[in-house]
């Protein structure tokens, strides 16, 4: 039986992670695809940005330059340009100067190697991160609903076919990850705040503080998290003013913040999944590393929509990485969606499904 192998080299530099990956996909008529991640290199700038309490775009861009070269050298190894067939790169959304580093590297590689280039939307990359789970890939049946929760985005996106998206809900202000990060910062916890809040929430009381759940009953699939940040600020100031900022109070507030975010995400996702009669629900993006969110969404689907497949992305591909960009790059390759290197530019503001 004839089979074809496609190796996608991917570069991701949209925010504060430099990442390079090589994905091998074997296509054979009448057989499921065989997908393997050959290289999965991620260099995080978190320690660099930690001292500023958040990502500094100029610092991020400058750090991407040597890291991109270093990871590419490592990934390509002795094979050099023979190690891949297609180049994929994140074109947007993201920080303009950071995106430029990956895009220029990809253009240079495409020019010198003569191999085709595909431009990838970072959010489609997050969606594709769930597809990298080989065990769950066989449950992919359209239409699917994707909850994309990251530091910059909170979106409910219908995935109606390969590369076919329809945005049905999004945040009107802060993203869920941003809400975690901002709450943590207000409480004096280091960046990024999501994992810090999650760790403290393990030993906190989620009912200790009554925090708002904006837009809970408005019938839309939109979110709003800026009110939560304000409520955390008042609560924290009050605790400080009354000398009650104990470790336990911090843990309790962390647990209450996490509960407010998780509850609204789960409720709206399940409601949208019911309304759209989807066959599966994807949970992707940095915030999907949150164990409580993962468990609660899984449990809610099992109880309320037992026939619907639950497809969270695998741990290794949750936070920004290039394996997910390679997977989305393979989709773009399958759709013949190539971009000549001469025409490729960054697209810092670029949503999917609108
Ligand atoms: O997808 P990602 O790596 O980068 C963006 O594209 O934004 O997401 C990063 C976000 C940060 O806001 C971080 O605080 C959050 O994901 N995050 C978490 C957890 N791990 C990372 N939020 C909640 N709980 C976690 N365990
Ligand atoms: Zn991301």
Rg: 21 Å
Helical segment tally?
Answer: 11
Global outline:
globular
Ligands bound, unique: 5'-O-[(R)-(carboxyoxy)(hydroxy)phosphoryl]adenosine, zinc ion
Note the run of SSEs as H and E: EEEHHEHEHHEEEHHHHEHEH
Structure description:
This protein is of the alpha/beta class and 354 residues long. Helices cover 42% and strands 21% of the residues. The chain contains 11 helices and 10 strands. Strands 3-2-1-4-5 form a 5-stranded mixed sheet, with helices on both faces. A 5-stranded mixed sheet has the order 8-7-6-9-10, with helices on both faces. Strand 4, helix 3 and strand 5 form a beta-alpha-beta unit. The chain is globular and about 70 Å long. The protein binds 5'-O-[(R)-(carboxyoxy)(hydroxy)phosphoryl]adenosine and zinc ion (ZN). The site of zinc ion has 6 residues, from helix 4. 5'-O-[(R)-(carboxyoxy)(hydroxy)phosphoryl]adenosine (KG4) binds next to helix 6 and helix 7.
